[in-house]
Design a protein that fits this description.
Shape: globular
Structural class: alpha+beta
Number of strands: 19
CATH class of the largest domain: Alpha Beta
Number of domains: 4
Largest sheet: 5 strands, antiparallel
Length: 420
């Protein structure tokens, strides 16, 4: 097939392919389509444990597509190989005091892997965003363009180097969140933004989940441009690596403010006045503030090596989060914390009774939310829906997309839904 040079190893029928050029990728996928041989797509492998266990005997390793090919700081745009480590992107941007505003999380330690193994393409393919999502949007909102190979073995591209560059379908929105089921991305282009001059976090101590949600809501409704809002119970706050959080020994709400120094100082002071009715307040500055939000972003409270509980990510209307989480955690014997102003519930429960699948699905259905199983053994991920079950119309659309991009079903088949 003209691509034998990048076959690294074979065991029985299993093959590891590591293409180094666009031609290699086209040849590999075309071979897979001809042979109807499913391929598991990986980059850094940090999110390999998310999704339904695959049935692909062959692995397409895209980690050779690495390196920043274009970075125009003045134009706020960066292009890189899809396999470029996120750590390399952060380092390059930091040199120009810029950042990926959607704050991509690192789930490596949560899933039992190392820190820093995630790639830019992987974050975009999974459409992951951290605490700043409530202000900056999701990864898809910063995804400008890409080149990829479809399941037909054909190269295609979309977008470009500017935000408004869409003349047809905005394929970036489709690829973001497709988890490698529609195409093997090789190059990606993203929008970057200036990093804040100062970052501080107002802490409100002693509030329960409902009070914490009320405090976060009040803060988000002020004109003080809050960029993140989260709540931690006492049991999870005391395992923090941030001294002020750990030593307080209380539940707390965290409200982040970013921007020019004098502005941040003024806004924090005003927020402390307005939030004092909810509890005693304190501030985290600089390193401590960054550390707190990194823990929230990367689900640090549930990432301990001896924590074998199932971890769910629930997205619900913010005003429903606290009540729903309290009820579900109470019924299942779990723990939770809130992000996105109460709209994101991170929930850890025992593996028994299918990880609480039935109860959790029923709970999120009421307010119109959705649930994703982020950490669980392969047996459980095979037995229950990992991603939110789709309504019939949406399921039909998903199948049509899959058939258009990957008619033989060779790219990460079944990772999201059976047959897709």
């Amino acid at each position: 097939m003209g691509a034998i040079c990048f076959i690294l190893s074979t065991k029985a029928v299993a093959t590891l392919l590591k293409p180094e050029t666009v031609d290699h990728v086209r040849d590999a996928v075309a071979w897979a389509a001809t042979e109807e041989a499913p391929l598991e797509l990986i980059g850094g492998g940090s999110k390999r444990g998310i999704g339904r266990p695959g049935n692909a005997a062959h692995t397409l390793d895209m980690s050779a597509f690495t390196g920043i090919s274009l970075y125009e700081a003045e134009e706020l745009v960066l292009s890189a190989g899809a396999g470029t480590p996120i750590a390399d992107i952060h380092a390059a941007l930091a040199g120009n005091k810029q950042e990926l505003a959607f704050e991509p999380p690192d789930y490596g330690p949560l899933l039992g892997g190392p820190e820093g193994a995630g790639t830019l393409g992987g974050v975009l393919a999974a459409n992951l965003a951290g605490p700043r999502r409530i202000k900056a949007g999701a990864a898809r909102d910063h995804f400008l363009g890409f080149t990829a190979v479809s399941g037909r073995g054909e190269e295609f591209k979309s977008g470009g180097r500017v935000v408004k560059n869409v003349t047809g379908y905005d394929l970036c929105k489709i690829m973001a969140g497709s988890w490698g089921t529609l195409g093997a991305m090789m190059q990606v282009t993203v929008k970057v933004l200036p990093a804040a001059e100062k970052t501080r976090t107002v802490l409100v101590f002693g509030c329960d989940a409902a009070q914490g949600t009320a405090a976060m809501t009040k803060a988000l409704q002020t004109p003080y441009e809050v960029s993140a809002a989260a709540w931690l119970p006492q049991a999870l706050a005391v395992v923090s690596g941030v001294g002020y959080v750990k030593q307080a020994g209380m539940s707390l709400a965290g409200i982040r403010v970013e921007g020019p120094g004098p502005s941040v100082e003024y806004r924090c002071a005003e927020l402390r006045k307005q939030l004092s009715a909810f509890g005693e307040t304190e501030e985290l500055h600089g390193h401590n503030s960054a550390g707190f939000w990194r823990e929230v972003r990367d689900v640090h409270p549930f990432a301990a090596t001896d924590d074998d509980r199932v971890v769910w990510k629930l997205s619900v209307p913010p005003q429903s989060g606290a009540k729903l989480a309290n009820e579900v955690a109470g019924a299942l014997g779990g723990e939770f914390y809130l992000d996105w102003g109460g709209g994101l519930v991170w929930l850890a429960v025992p593996e028994a009774s299918e990880g609480g699948n039935i109860a959790i699905r029923a709970a999120v259905a009421g307010p119109g939310g959705h649930a994703t199983l982020i950490r669980a053994p392969a047996e459980l991920r095979s037995a229950v829906s990992v991603f939110q079950p789709q309504v019939p119309g949406l399921a039909r659309l998903g199948r049509r997309l899959k058939e258009s991009f990957d008619p033989r079903g060779v790219l990460n088949p079944g990772r999201m839904y059976p047959g897709v």
